[in-house]
Amino acid sequence: MAKFNRSHGDRISYSSTKTCRPSVSEDRPPEVMRSHWQMLQRRCQMTRKEWREQRDYGQWLRMWEYGFSKNEGPGDLLHVASDGITYEQCAKGMCCATCQAIGYHDQAIIISVSEACRRSPTQDGLAAYGIFLGPSRATGHIITDPNPKRESAELEGTIAALRSVQRMRDSDPAFDIERVVIKSDFEYVVKGMTTRIQHWKANGYLNSEGKPLGNQILFRLLDDLVNELNDEGVGVQFWQVPKEWNNGAEFWAQRMLDIVQGQKLGDIPDTLR
């Protein structure tokens, strides 16, 4: 069954099935070492189930040898397409080891999430989150909790981001994605959903002191949402990046607080990502 049939002039085309990842040709290009080529072939035999269950995008990048030098950054993997959405692209403009083409992968979208908190003498604490799919597809939301914290704001933003993916899939049959990458600068959420969640689920969501985990309701909701998307054939991965590489979502979180506090709004920068 052919997939990814949306018409974007700058996209790549995959020829894939529902049961396996795109295959690597048996004809090894002369510039690719035999051992490396065999490794790529083994990787492409991974089942979709195994592919989806890899939640740690950083580990995913290391597996595919996508490293960043001091002169490079996560932006090398981002491509804003003509539909305004940020997609994963082949690293460094090189020939992709999986698809054997240069371009972006329109089955993998990258959504940035960030939070912002403020306090003032005349107001209770304020918190907001920002969601950034691309320069023309970004939004923010104020947290209504009377005593908001940045941890819960980031979790609520991540939940909202994944629910927006579900709505887009429901409303547009052509929005046929296989992977969602949540890009965040907050270790609390990224580590929580990649390396800690299974331990919490096994011990009843207790912390290291044996007490109920803070924000366990939000973590449970988020984990359930990830599993729902997995059941629908969509993998969800979490990617921790430096704060400067998450300025799109951060901008919209701060902008929502500016609106609530009646501050003058500036222009939207064209350098957001």
Poorly predicted regions are 1-26
Strand residues, percent: 15-25%
What general outline do the C-alpha atoms trace?
Answer: globular
Helix/strand-derived category reads alpha/beta
Distance between the termini: 33 Å
Number of H/I helices: 7
**β-strand number:** 7
Largest pleated sheet: 7 strands, mixed
Strand/helix succession: HHHEEEEEHEHHEH
| pLDDT averaged over residues | 76
Percent of residues in helices? 25-40%
Description:
The chain has 273 residues and is α/β, with parallel strands linked by helices. Helix content is 33%, strand content 20%. The protein has helices spanning 34-43, 48-52, 57-63, 150-171, 187-202, 216-231, 247-260, and strands at 78-80, 86-89, 104-120, 123-134, 137-142, 179-184, 235-240. The protein is globular.
